[in-house]
Amino acid sequence: MKKTILLVALSLMLVFMTACGSKPAAEPTQPAESTGETTPEATEPAESTATTGGTLVVYSPNSEGLMNATVPLFEEKYGIQVEVIQAGTGELIKRLASEKDAPYADVMFGGSFSQFYSNADLFQDYVSPNDSNVIEAYRNTTGYTTSYVLDGSCLIVNKDLIGDIPVKGYKDLLNPELKGKIASADPANSSSAFAQLTNMLLANGGYESDEAWNYVKELYTNIDGKVMGSSSKVYKSVADGEMVVGLTYEDPSADLVRDGADVEIIYPEEGTVYLPATAAIVKDCANLDNAKLFIDFIISEEVQNIYGTTLTNRPVVEGAQVGTYLTPISDIYVINEDIPYVNEHKPEIVEKYIDIFTSIE
Predict the structure, then answer these.
(1) How confident is the model over 136-168, as pLDDT tens digits?
(2) Cα separation of 229 and 243, whole Å?
(3) Structural domains of the chain ordered from first start
(4) Residue 248 is inside which H or E element, if any?
(5) Which run of H or E residues covers position 238?
(6) In this structure, are residues 28 and 79 in contact, taking their beta carbons and an 8 Å threshold?
(7) Alpha-carbon distances of 348 from 188, 197, 231, 255, 344, rounded to whole Å
C-alpha cells in the first residue's frame, strides 16, 4: 500500500513539473490574402497593453506591396491571426455601413482622409500613443483617424524628351513648346487628378481665386484636350516617351525612378500637397484590443522605416528613413490642403473645372 501511494505521489510530481515547463512558441499564421517575405521585426509600439493572440479582420484597398510589408510582420510579432479583405475604398465603406449593427471588420486600413471624414459614424475613437511621433500636420485631430503614409502630387518629366525646356513648377507648364505634350487624367473622374487640381489651385492663389482658376484654364488649353482615361496612363505615357510631362503623384513616379526609368520627379516650386492614407478602428468591432495594437504598429518607428526604405510610400513619422529614390520631405516646399473645405466643396470644384474644360476651343 505504501509503495502504491509513493508511486502515485511520484507520478503527480512528474506531471506537475512537466506542466510548469515552458511551452513552445506558436508558429506565425499567414494572412488569407497576403504573401511575400517577412520583413524585419518591428519595435514594440509605445505603451501597448493589449494581450497577444486572437484574431483581427482588416478591410483594405492597399497594394499588395504595402500589405506584405505590414500584415505578416504583425502576425509574427503578436501571434494574432489576420484576415484581410481587399477591395476598393468606396466598396469597403459601403460594406462597413451595411454591417454597422454587426461589424465584421475590426480595422479599415487605407483610403483617403476625406472618405473617413465623411463617414465618421463608422469608426471608433482612438488616438495611438505613437501619434505624437507623426509629422504635426498629419496627426490625429479627429479622435479616430490615423495617418500612416503620405502621397503627394508631383510632376514627372521624361529626361530624354524635355531637352532644354525648364520645368520647376506649374508656371513652366504654360510654355507653348509643351502644348499637347502634357499628360493629365480627368479631375472629374480620377482622385489623383482631382488632388492635382486642388494642389494647383492652392499653389496659385487658393480654391476660390480667380487667378488660380485662370491658371487652370491656361494649363488645360496647353494640354490641348489630351486628357487620359486613367491616372496610370499619365505616368506610363511619360515613361514610354509618348508624352514629355505628366501631372501625377509620387508613389508610382518614385517606383519608376527606383526601377531605373529615364524620368525625373519635379515637386512644384509653388508648393506640393501631401495627402495622408488613413486607417481607423471600426466602431463596436469584435477585437478592439488587437485593433488598437494594429494602429499602434503601423505608425511605430520600425514599421515606418520599413515603409520608407522598401516601398515607394512616404512615411508619416517624423525623421523616418527613406530610400534614395525619394527626395527628403525637408527639401520639398509642402503646402497644406484644407481637407474639410475641399471635401465639402468637391462638387463645386469639379463642376467649375468641367465648365472651363468644355469652354476651351
Answers:
(1) 999 999 999 999 999 999 999 999 999 999 999
(2) 15
(3) 55-150+275-329 (3.40.190.10), 152-274+332-359 (3.40.190.10)
(4) strand 245-249
(5) helix 231-239
(6) yes
(7) 11, 13, 22, 33, 9
